[in-house]
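Sequence in, structure out. Go.
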Amino acid sequence: MRKILCGLSLFLGLGCVPEITETEVITPLPVKQKCNPKDICCFDLGDQVGTSDLFSNWEFIAFQRTKGSSFDNLTCNARIAVFALGGEKYDTVFRVMLKFEKLPSSLTYCGDLPGFELRTFSNQIKGCYNTNKDKTIQLKTQSESIVYIPGVASNTFPILEFEQDILEDIQNVESYVIESDKLYLTVKGKSYKLLFVARED
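Output:
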């Protein structure tokens, strides 16, 4: 009787061992994507031919939590607000642009530091920056260097929140990385990066 019970236990035990299968190979989705021309929140992030450096013209795309992840809704909602209320056309959608200069800024508080300019939906922000070979970078601006440029969508909640976030983040940038035609700015204390794409025009 004991032999029968032991045999039965062994049989049931073997029946619970999971079947060993080969690991499934998952092919990553291609980075490049085609966008509907009427989707103003869609961007082709495929690597473009050419060389980009810090002094390229950079268009702000989104607050991006991880590389390759979807974009935040705030930036998209702000773009939609400006587009819908401003009566823009699809081929002239407003761009949030960042430009780093090589020459010293004309702002008195900057000393010999080179300047930068950020044009957001409602503000023109000027300042200066300091960068090192290890890709650390600090941006500095003061209230007198921020010019408010009101638009029809400036008082909407997406624009107000966006402007507050981008101004705070720009002043807390710690480092940057350039990969192909993309610029990633790391912000102190934030889990996301500021993503920009180089533009020729």
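Check: The chain has three helices and nine strands. Residues 184 and 195 are 5 Å apart (CA to CA).
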